[in-house]
Each structure stands twice: as C-alpha cells, then as structure tokens.
Amino acid sequence: METRAPYVLIGSFVLAAIVAVFGFVYWLNNTGGIGPRANYHVQFQGPVPGLLVGAGVLFNGIRVGEVTQLGLAPDNPRFVNATISVTSTTPVRTDTKVGLDFQGLTGVPVVTLEGGVIVAKAGEPVTLIAEAGAGQSMTQAARDALRRVDTVLEDNSRPLKDTIANLKTFSDGLARNTGKIDGILAGLEKMTGGGTPAQKITYDLRSPQNLGPAGKTLTASLAIPEPTAVAMLQTQRMLFAPSGDNPGFAEFLWADSIPKLVQARLIDSFENYDIAHAPLRTSDLGQADYQLLIDIRRFRIATEGETRVEIGLSARIVDKNGKVVASRLIEASEKLDKVEPAAAVAAFDAAFYRIARELIGWTVQAV
Q1: What is the pLDDT of residue 239?
Q2: Is 175 strand, coil or helix?
Q3: What is the pLDDT of the chain when averaged over all its residues?
Q4: Tens-place pLDDT, residues 290-343
Q5: Domain locations in the chain?
C-alpha cells in the first residue's frame, strides 16, 4: 500500500509558524504592539540621516513606539515630516522636546521625546517641532566645526604667519639677552622685597625679679587693663626718634605689640613683688576694687644728642565709681653705647626695672 505524504498539511504548518514568528517579532519590536496607540506629527528642521520607517521612539529613554511614516515637507524641502505611533499612555505634551539620537556602535537613529508640561486641548492635533540641528550626528557636528575652523584659518592665514614670525623674532631676542633679563628680574626682586624673606628675630622685655621684701601689700583687688597708646606705638618694631633707616633692626620684633608687652610685664612685676595679691589681667568694675590705667607716652630709642632708651608712662588709679584716686608720670631713660638689638634690649630692661619698681611702690601706697 502506497503512503501519501500530507504536503498540504506540512506546508500550512510551516507557513503558520513563519507568520507566528514574524508576529512575535513585530510585537516585541513595538512594545506590546496591539494595545491602544496615539499618533503624533513631528517636523524636523533639517536632515535626518538614517531614520527609517519602523525606527524606535523613546520617551525619557524608554521605548514607547515607532516611526510609521516619513516624507519631505511639501512647502519646504529642507524640512522632514514624520508620523510616530506611541502607546496612548505616553505623556506627550505640546511642548515635549523632540530630538534624534544615534544608538549603538552602528549609530542606529531613534526619535527621542523628553518632558513637557502643556497639555493639548481635547481633539486638537499635536505637532511636535524638533530643535534645529536635532538630526545632526556627532560626526557631522565635528565636521562642521572643523569646516568653520578651516574657514577662519584660511581667512586669517597671512596675519597668523606674521604673528608666528614675530613670535620667532621675539624668542630669538630673548635667547640673545638671557643674561640681561636675569639681571633685570633680580633687580626687580630686590626692589620689591621679593625672594626669600629674612628670618625675624623676636626679643622680649624682662620683668624685674628682685624687688625686695614686700613691706606693704595690696589690701584691695587691682586690675591692669591693656595700656592705651597712639597708633605709632601699636607695633612690634623698634621705634626711633627721630625716625630713620636703621638696617641693624630690619629683622627686629618685640614679642608682642608694645602695649600688650608692657601690660604683661607689669603684671609679672607685681606678681614678683607679692604673688598673693597680684593684680588681674583684665579690668572688671564689678570685681576689682581699683584699676591701674596706663598710657604709654614713649617707648623708643632717642638718637638726638646722647643715644639713649626712653620709656614714659602716665599712670592713674581709678576706683569702682570711676573716680581718680591718684595719678603721676613715671619716666626712665638708659644710655645706649651701641645701637644694635641686643644692647638696646638690655637698656630697655634696665629702664623698665626702674619704671616697674617706682610704679609698684606708688600703687601700693595709693591703694
């Protein structure tokens, strides 16, 4: 008995399988394909290289549809009209931004949609206008930029040649005069005080140590505020009268500004006299019974006539109510044989010893 092959049945099965495969691929390519769709008209103001019917449409990077129609604008052949079909739930607005992106190594173009807040009126057709140059790829942008650069260089070729020639002449001149330029720069550096700064040397004022036994001590609390002084005395530099250039003191610095230094060493002197009743550093009318107010009048090296160190203070003792209890001027000077930092500091120590001793004795008697 002869067996007849069911050719019709086999052919029908193969054809159905092919149709099913193509349908499945179409469904995958169109993100689920057969659901509700919405069509929008898109206009590109320039070329759209490589864009084809069936190309993907992305909204914020998510595929939502495909291009269903492409054609040139009849009123302006430079423009390209396209129709896109996207899922109806895609939030396309009248101000949604449209662009063209190139994906993958092969640069497959896709239409991109982004953002938008203005909702179209019901039944009003939405036309999306792409930005100018949206279809321009990175390669095209680079070519255009290079073309513009080439145009600029071509238009200015002669001035550029002249500039390069002038630079060469200038560099040759610098090479021939390197030694002179180094000398000029060294002179400028010296004139402006540049280069490595000289190391400053700090000197301190010594407070008296041996003031004798405290025959009488302070019976009330005393505060010594920071002394007052004119702006010239608010410095750490050595002062001269008359002022002038003293190179030996260029690196000289007192340990602190002169008013703060005098305050600290006066308090040290009172402590060396009677540590148990030493005055406070800061004034507080609510706590101290008295204040010793100091005004610095002189703290300098006088070079007129006999060179000497001069210290002059104006002292006042004030009670809690601001009443002046006692006041006096205290001055001291010390001969200076050699005008140099070490000798000057020693002379200031000697003059300050007499100042502090006289001030302590007077304060103890007055309070």
Answers
A1: 93
A2: helix
A3: 82
A4: 899 999 999 999 998 899 999 999 999 998 888 999 999 999 999 998 899 999
A5: 35-132, 201-366
Q: How much is the pLDDT for 175?
A: 78
**In this predicted structure, what is the pLDDT of residue 33?**
52
User: Residue 30 CA to chain centroid, in angstroms?
Assistant: 53
SS3 76: strand
Question: What is the architecture of the domain spanning 35-132?
Answer: Beta Barrel (2.40)
AA identity, residue 51? L
CB 341 within 8 A of CB 252: yes
Query: Tens of pLDDT along 71-95?
Result: 888 888 788 888 988 888 888 888 8
Tell me which of 140 and 245 has the higher pLDDT.
245
Residue 54 and residue 83 in contact, taking contact as beta carbons nearer than 8 Å: no
Q: Which residue has the tokens 């507080």?
A: 284
Residue of 359 and 215 predicted with greater confidence:
359
Neighbours of 49 (CB within 10 A): 14
In angstroms, the CA 19 to CA 14 distance is 9
DSSP bridge pairs for 195: none
| 96 close to 115: Cβ distance less than 8 angstroms | yes
Q: Scan for tokens 């953002």, then name that residue.
A: 115
The helix (run of H) or strand (run of E) holding residue 202 is strand 201-203
User: How far, in Å, CA of 124 to CA of 298, rounded?
Assistant: 93
Topology adopted by domain 201-366: Rossmann fold (3.40.50)
Non-local CB neighbours of 42 within 8 Å, separated by 6+ positions: 81, 82, 83, 84, 98, 111, 127, 128, 129, 130
Can you tell me which residue has the tokens 């407070």?
A: 207
